[in-house]
């Protein structure tokens, strides 16, 4: 089967990690027999007019064995959603036809996120059927402009199937499409087995957290919860990976509780540094206020580590009794109790059992085959 993927965001020279999960999914699907091609319409903010490395225009390239077609353009209609969607749908129509002439007929179009790719595709009047996988935290964070909401009904309901990556999105998207028609397929983990050097300086029980230091990641809650247990955590420490606008606030909180010798903010980490910290921690904990999925939890359980997350609709798609605990959002006492329980009962978490749970439910082959089943069903129904 031949599938055209249209991501609403995707890696660029300016941002090489944006939409990297979409890229890795297409690569995993190729490994499982799907011919995947990507068409990405990238809108550059006018604020980046003199700073962007990107050139306006249409290009094609082979990236990790995948044919990628790109059209870069400036967003000349910021916040003018009606005009923006007309322009976007015109571009999708134009470049869909160009790509189809080069590559042949597509069986199906797979769009990642209704905002804004599926909206524009739905308006383009292209006859090739499409499905949507929704990832965006904008739904749970109530960040969708009222002018955009009216377009979402058509984008979701005219799709042959709608996939969501977390339990929370089932409820969020049910405002636009019948919940019983939605499919839950989690994000996949593409990390492979790797040897990671042991931290020779580690002498304490270590909690590790990772995320941009923004309010929505709840690092302040994690610090507050650790402080609740500081009299018990005499041989415990908390490492926090990431950087962002809340760093000074978090450092002030650490100083307030006199925890400088127990809590360390590591700053931004490379993939190798993330692997090192995942491998050498005892527990991974993240107290997000919003999280549609949470790939970092998968990275942790891939290393056999127990995890602690919040009921945001994402982590509770992953966490169960085998691999950790889940608590309410902003519940400092509940998080403190969960951290204490895992600290005291760490021996009950079997690293091999946790790794097997990860492999059997979130490995790229398992998830890819679930997506392929959706493709086959839609294509069969189309005759």
From TrEMBL:
It comes from the Bacteria. Residues 80-188 form the Glycosyltransferase subfamily 4-like N-terminal domain. GO terms for molecular function: glycosyltransferase activity. InterPro entries: Glyco_trans_1, Glyco_trans_4-like_N. Coiled coil: none annotated. Residues 197-346 form the Glycosyl transferase family domain. Pfam families: Glyco_transf_4, Glycos_transf_1. This is Glycosyltransferase family 4 protein. It comes from Clostridium paridis.
């Amino acid at each position: 089967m031949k599938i055209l993927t249209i991501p609403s965001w995707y890696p660029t020279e300016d941002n090489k990690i944006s939409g990297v999960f979409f890229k890795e999914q297409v690569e995993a699907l190729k490994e499982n027999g799907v011919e995947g091609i990507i068409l990405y319409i990238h809108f550059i903010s006018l604020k980046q007019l003199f700073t962007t490395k990107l050139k306006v225009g249409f290009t094609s390239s082979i990236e990790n064995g995948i044919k990628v077609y790109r059209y870069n353009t400036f967003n000349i209609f910021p916040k003018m959603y009606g005009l923006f969607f007309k322009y976007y749908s015109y571009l999708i129509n134009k470049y869909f036809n160009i790509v189809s002439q080069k590559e042949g007929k597509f069986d199906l179009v797979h769009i990642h996120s209704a905002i804004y790719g599926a909206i524009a595709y739905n308006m383009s009047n292209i006859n090739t059927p499409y499905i949507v996988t929704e990832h965006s935290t904008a739904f749970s964070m109530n960040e969708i402009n009222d002018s955009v909401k009216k377009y979402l009904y058509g984008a979701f309901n005219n799709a042959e199937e709608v996939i969501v990556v977390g339990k929370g999105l089932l409820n969020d998207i049910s405002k636009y499409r019948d919940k019983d028609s939605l499919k839950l397929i989690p994000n996949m983990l593409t990390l492979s087995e790797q040897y990671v050097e042991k931290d020779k300086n580690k002498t304490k029980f270590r909690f590790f957290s990772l995320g941009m230091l923004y309010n929505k990641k709840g690092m302040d809650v994690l610090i507050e919860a650790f402080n609740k247990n500081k009299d018990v955590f005499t041989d415990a420490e908390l490492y926090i990976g990431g950087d962002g606008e809340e760093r000074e606030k978090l450092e002030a909180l650490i100083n307030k509780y006199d925890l400088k010798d127990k809590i360390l903010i590591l700053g931004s980490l490379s993939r190798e540094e993330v692997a090192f910290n995942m491998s050498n921690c005892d527990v991974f904990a993240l107290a997000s206020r919003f999280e549609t999925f949470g790939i970092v939890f998968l990275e942790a359980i891939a290393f056999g580590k127990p995890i602690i997350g919040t009921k945001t609709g994402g982590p509770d798609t992953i966490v169960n009794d085998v691999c950790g605990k889940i608590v309410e959002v902003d519940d400092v006492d509940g998080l403190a109790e969960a951290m204490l329980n895992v600290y005291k009962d760490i021996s009950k978490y079997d690293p091999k059992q946790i790794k097997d749970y990860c492999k059997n439910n979130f490995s790229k082959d398992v998830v890819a085959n679930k997506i392929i089943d959706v493709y086959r069903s839609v294509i069969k129904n189309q005759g």
